[in-house]
Amino acid sequence: MRLYVLHKTHYSYPSPVRNSCNELRLSPLSNDWQKCITCFVSVFPTTKTRQYLDLNGNLVHYFEIPEDHSHLTIESRSTTTTSKRVDFGNFPYGVPMRSLKEVESSPEARPYLQSSHFVDITPEIWRQAVEIQGDSKDVFQTAYQIMEFVYLNYEYCVSTTSVDTHVSEVLKKRKGVCQDFAHAVIALCRCLGIPARYVSGYFYDSSRDQIMRGGGASHAWVEVLVNGHGWFGLDPTNNRVVDETYVLIGSGRDYRDVAPVTGNYFGKLPDKMEVSVNVRRID
Fold first, then answer.
1. Which of 101, 125, 184, 186 could pair covalently with 196 via S-S, beta carbons 3.0-4.6 A apart?
2. How confident is the model at residue 110 (pLDDT cuts 50, 70, 90)?
3. Is beta strand 175-176 parallel, antiparallel or unpaired with respect to 155-156?
4. Into how many domains does the chain fold?
5. Which of 16, 8, 18 is nearest to 264 (CA)?
């Protein structure tokens, strides 16, 4: 599948700001399941951008605008080819929970078993996770049950949370958007010893009625590590295993590691911010 993504972010400030320094994580990665064919990131006011890979292997564009400016526009245009990660009906069932002892000391898994900026591991969250697990002794089945529980019991509700909302509040109120659903699943999985990481990207809604939740903006989901099988994506916002309709931008311990736009400047807060995302199939 070949997918084209146009991501626009526009800021308007009540008075000119200056010395704006920003990091962008808007470029799709290339891995075994997807290949970024082209990606063009532009910034206005026009300035030079530089690139580097962060500690999680995500591609970052960095730029500075020292001059006064009242508006900032960031655009990313990318084309990515995706392929099936796993055939439905052939998920990695059969790996017992006791096998998690074998991966807990692995450098690949260790960062995704600990507390992070937005995710805590606490006795209260552990008790919730154990209740959801029930009699399951299987790693993938347990992670799937957690995803399904969040989908069925949490209300998808825009404007009830912010990018700074901690998972403790999400688990208490059971409301939020894709970022919050992902943090909830990550916390519950980590409490059971299942390595879980936050993934940022986009998805193409191939349904005729466009019924998937979270379209029109960056999307977030979770990847869990199943020993001997690698990482598998779970989307608690839409209760589905991630497939070739998803485009991965980056992954990390939580939202803080893969926020699409981060930065700072001297000046007042924006009085207007507009974000739009359009994903379409072009093959």
1. 186
2. very high
3. parallel
4. 2
5. 18
